[in-house]
């Protein structure tokens, strides 16, 4: 067992007991056994040095002087004058050893605390730099992709609209003639799906600036639940709202924040094929107003946690990989952060952190 694992009162008791035992051993040793007297005198250094190492210079000095007092008290009547001078010198050496040991130990402890504090600061700085670096990489990727997406989306959208229009005309004629329209239905459905994808491209490439105004957090939750209710009913999913009184309203772009919440909610719905509960909450944490969407789904795999906000990253079979990227961008434009807070097989929690200075009570 290490000495540091023993409580301080026990350590002090052991040191004091050791000093007393050495003194008693020295007292009861016959005078003709000179070599044993030298042994006992040297053994005093063990509790003295231990005191200085464990408790610093004050306790070290006290242990040294206590050892000297025991040494003088039990042998004064036996000592001739020249031995008495040596014993007084021993007392001074005992005190000096305890003092120096304690001073060096205090200095070492102080330096260790400084090193630990510096190490903790460097570790925090490293984490911050790493986080900033990842955000810069994501921002660069989004900016580059945004320029490409904007031009590409506009170039594709016009011929796609023509295809959809032509398919609609052919579909009407086929129905009038009583012909099968199955393949035309597929063409039209896929054209509209591509159109939705292009709309997401444009939203991602050229996000509009937020139109800030006061909005009720509970009303944002209610609107999101209404929009997601059809998909939720199919999977037997219930909704729950938890709004603190100091987090009831927010200065934001309601439509954009609703888009963020709807995206998080639909992701939660698709992650819960067996049903369950989705919880919306709003709390104040320091300078932030935090809106959370918590589900009971399959969660996010650890290896995917760093990529879920990247454009085109998706784990859904028919997903575009732009929903969370657009949501992340919207929250950033509001001066906040979108974060994955928990990641476990029992579900996931996404947090929308917005500056509380933007909220109105």
Notes on the protein architecture:
- This protein is of the alpha+beta class and 361 residues long.
- The chain folds into 3 domains: 3-121; 133-205; 213-358, Histidine kinase-like ATPase, C-terminal domain (Heat Shock Protein 90), CATH 3.30.565.10.
- It contains 9 helices and 7 strands, in the order H-H-H-H-H-H-E-H-E-E-H-E-E-H-E-E.
- It has helices at residues 8-28, 34-43, 45-55, 57-75, 81-176, 182-205, 217-234, 254-270, 323-333, and strands at residues 213-216, 237-243, 249-252, 276-285, 288-294, 337-344, 347-355.
- The strands form 2 sheets. It has a 5-stranded mixed beta sheet. It has a two-stranded antiparallel ribbon with strand order 1-3.
- A hairpin with a 2-residue loop joins strand 6 and strand 7 (347-355).
- Helix 1 runs antiparallel to helix 2 and helix 5 packs across helix 6.
- 28% of the residues are buried.
- The model has no long low-confidence stretch (mean pLDDT 79).
Instruction: Tell me the span between the first and last alpha carbons.
Output: 57 Å
Q: What helical percentage do the residues reach?
A: 55-70%
Order of helix and strand elements from N to C terminus: HHHHHHEHEEHEEHEE
What's the domain count?
3
Tell the overall outline.
Answer: rod-shaped
CATH topology of the largest domain: Heat Shock Protein 90
Number of strands: 7
- The CATH class label of the largest domain is Alpha Beta
What's the architecture of the largest domain in CATH terms? 2-Layer Sandwich
Strand order of the largest sheet: 2-4-5-7-6
CATH homologous superfamily designation of the largest domain:
Histidine kinase-like ATPase, C-terminal domain
Number of H- or I-type helical stretches: 9
Strand content: 5-15%
Which stretches are poorly predicted, pLDDT < 50 over at least 5 residues? none
Oligomer: single chain
**How large, in whole angstroms, is the Cα Rg?**
38 Å
Mean pLDDT: 79
Largest sheet: 5 strands, mixed
Structural class: alpha+beta
